[in-house]
Design brief:
The complex is a heterodimer of chains A (167) and B (128). Chain A has 2 helices and 8 strands, in the order ββββαββββα. With 128 residues, chain B is mainly alpha-helical. The chains are: A alpha+beta (167), B mainly alpha (128). Chains A and B meet through β5 of A and α2 of B.
Chain lengths: 167, 128
Amino acid sequence: MRWMWIDCILEHEADSRLVAIKNVSLAEEHLHDHLVDGKPIMPFSLMIEGMAQTAGIIVGSTSGFKEKVILAKIAKATLDCDVTVGDTIRYDATIEHIDTAGAKTMGIIDRRIAGGDAWERIGKVELLFSHIDNNMAGVSFPEHNFVFSDNFKMILDTAGLSGLAEV
Amino acid sequence: MSREEIFEKIQEVLDDALGVDEDEVTPGASLTADLGAESIDFLDIVFRLEKTFDFKISQGELFPEGLTDNEEWVTDGKLTDAGLSMLRERMKHVDFDAFGASDRDISKIGDLITVNSLVNFVEIKLAS
């Protein structure tokens, strides 16, 4: 089973942009081992994965999830402050460039602190995805699409976007 | 746009794509051998060049791809005469002279893509 790092999709603009959120909970075991001054902090690496899943969905949706889309490169990633339990993370991913070989996305990370109403911009993540069946290295991969698993389908279903996977 | 202006923009592109310092980006520097580019970096560079210079680059236009799929072009890991002619015709921005006179080991062909060949490529594209 693939571990999902987004909870639900908030916005979708066809072939262009996807916004998803994640609620950070103390029920997540990894937070018990990732402390800064005794305070549980969401690891930035997992936030990058959350952005990759958000951006991967919008990139995959452009081909009806028939292409195998994998994260190939973190071109740039910055984070200005920590995220802790009770906070909500918002991933806003936009396709900057896409062709048969792959795609490039620009992502904004926002945070809403526990009990707050306002979103605050805290980071940017620029990612490169490969359509691996058309990779420049000429490497072959299995025929079935192992990238977009049932977990992704569940998130699409929950957002009322299951039609995207039936193109 | 002058050749010098193209070179300066390519320095910025490679600085962003490969995380190298601008002074490492000399005309003769090979993208793979000297600047550490890997295959996925080529895709990044293609996207950045398209955005910077506002033109489209077709797959295989800038970097050689799919050579080993054709025995007429590559035999026993070596580029054939037919393969060399095809590349010279398709990729006028790359200097194949030294490679053609060497053992033509196909695994080293990526080393031929230098900063200078990127400048040539952009110059040819902008003039077309």
